[in-house]
Amino acid sequence: MLGSASTLCRVRRIAGIVLAVLLLGGVVAAVVAGRQGEDKGTATKTVRGVIGSEKADFFADPDVVKALAAKGYTVKAEASGSWAMEGLDLKGYDFAFPSSQAPARQLAHKYHVQEPLPRPFYSPLVVVAHRSAADVLAGNGLATLDGRNRGTLKMRAYLDAARHDRTWQQLKGATKYGELTGALYIASTDPESSNSGALYLAASSYVAGGGKVVSGKADVERTAPLLHKLVSVQGAQQSSSDAVFRDFVSGAGNPLVLVYESQVAALLAEQHAVDDLVVLYPDTTVNSDHTVVPLDAAGRALGELLSTDPALRKLAVRHGFRPQGDAAEFVAATGDRSAYLNQKLTGVRQAPVPTSGVLHDMARRARG
Amino acid sequence: MRRRPLLALAVATAALLTACTAEAEHKDDPAAPKPGTLRVLASSELSDMTAVFDRVRKDTGVTIRPTYMGTLDAVDLLARGKADGAYDALWLSSDDYLRLRPEAAKKVVSETPVMSSPVAVGVKPATVRALGWKPGSVTWSQVEQAVQDGRLTYGMTDPARSNSGFATLVSVASALSGAQSALTDADVAKATPRLKEFFKGQKLTSGSSGWLATAYRRRGTVDALLNYESVLEGIPGLTVIRPRDGVVTADYPFSSLAATGARTREDVRKVTADLRTDAVQQLITETTHRRPVVPSVRPAAGLDTARRRELPFPGSRSVADGLLDSYENELRRPSRTVYVLDTSGSMEGGRIAALKKALAGLTGDFRDREEVTLMPFGSAVKSVRTHVVDPGDPEAGLDAIRRDTDALSADGGTAIYTSLEQAYDQLGAGKDAFTSIVLMTDGENTAGAEAGDFDGFYRALGGSRREIPVFPILFGDSSRSELQHIADLTGGRLFDAQQGSLDGAFEEIRGYQ
After folding, report:
1. Origin, by domain of life (chain A) (predicted)?
2. What share of chain A is helix, strand, coil (3-state, %, to 5)?
């Protein structure tokens, strides 16, 4: 048995060499790709990229794979924290696709990529809560609810509570719920490695600064104590928005979790109704602009394709992202989820994001 | 404070390989990289996932080859760069501790949580009734009260070796310290007196969840086990309670490593995508009692879905390591061990040198308050020397152990059973400690009492001495069946230093002492 297997191996190896000699050059890549069992018929171009974890389901969706193949692409995407991408060796990759502009700019600078960078879609940060937690927040003036599954988180009141180490048991109506004890806080990802955690600090510092974006050392200094509190209370933090959301879905983790709206919208598209879920839109939030950093021509072509191809834009909406440039697309496609989603972002203000250097500083101080 | 030396305890599993590549020629080396096989550095809790591994292989063509290791050891390996090139992926019960070590955390590219399981308390139904507990509303304080009243004893795994033990320790410390947010050094210090009381109730310790369950069944007098819900659900006849005031939950992130190539990471991607499919999530929750992370799959029957507060994991290494250190050296009951060491003539040369080296390695690992007795034997016991690691001056005791180790010399026959009987006599009854006997021999019994005599001796022992397990180490030409019999008879566990190293075996036993 061993003998026959190794004979087979030898034959196959020889066949491989013969092929390689015959088809020297670019075609070899297609043979390799074919041997891995994909797209044997069509000659798609394999494009390799590193992406924020919240986009993993999008690229894994068979319809997305099909739509990309129709345009001649096979995308191999691997998840990484947006800020952690800077530490990766991206040799051999065609693109990086972090979750916002700041890490994208930094990567563009490192790899000498020409601006502008394609920004196919965006998603605001939201807080997911179980009904019990949302009700208690609303009963204590920290949130307002529009119906059963949607509401607005009052950031100023929340930050005030955090500043004063407010616990759940100090809030009216919390004792009914056993799980609502301990410090009141929003769980986020690690701001030093992950985008959503960093943007949480951006939004919080903007509110704490009375509507002023943090821009220099003095501002960083002034906001540091509060931001440190928001982070240190959480203990060890997850490094990806996918992980915190999965914990929430599996019933573990903190009652309030900061995620991207896209993650919630995608879950609802699959699930239709998640009864015990309330989506709280912070009255001041930050949009994550999912930004493509092309590392070569193929990467740039993919970025453009994601921005312009109607089929792919539609699929992006299915995964909960808001395509740039046309708000109506998202509103129309998420009509069935309007009980959960604030489709037009009514009453939600966008905080500007500090420059990446400042954001890094803020994150370091908050963690330290 | 002393840090224990982190020795990697690798127990590699066998793997099938049929790959048509140059690597196929290295078939004998289980550590060699192979396309289509992921060498996964994994928590030992994952050894119940075989059915899932098989399913993943069928779905993706990728073989998962786990090497089981404690979290601390695995994180240390990563931090020192020793996992680079040796492993293709990481799959711990939780990456919480990993994140406290930036040198290790930066070795990880992406983490995909696959399933979850909270820390829980598995209690005998009779005890639940006697305590008047309602399983849905029990708190850690009630558990603490029951321990204080002498109405509850329990077993848990060693936090330094097993992730389940570590998560349990953090849960208990967080809950009993009254900390409202992530634990700080001050919280731990404040909680120390209460924790000391709490850990007086711990009557069983183990380096692995599997042996803990076996020892629990055998002992019969322990009321409860603290472990992950998934482990406890797998032990028939336990009422599984998730304390109402909070738990630490493992989320089992399958993680890809920065030092690997694109092709390996593509295999990791395939595997994680498959693990998240409804079918595999269903298989996971049904076969392992863990909770799914996709909303379309319901947790297996029997897993209560009422919410629990998640206790935050410490955010700094100093807090986590400090807690572990006080558990080992201050909070837990001390250990008390007789090392019955074969120094017969056949140990001459390399073997006795290996023994001396292994024992010298252990001296860095003995805990404060630990009582160590060295009992070398040949045709009879040669000497009995007992040392205690005094918290006021730990080095004095450790130096004495090193001196005695140095003085060991090989001569005489092999009186295994007579020496074991003497070890039991030496231990007597009484002291409040985790008491055990380690037996290292390189040959078969040639002098003194026979196996049958020892069986009779053991069966005639009084209750508390019969609870002392023997952990035999298979070494040199010793007989597996003879030593396995001793382990089975006394409720111990056999450790293999014929396949693995003598250092490794001694080190692994530490988790059971």
Report:
1. Bacteria
2. 50, 15, 35
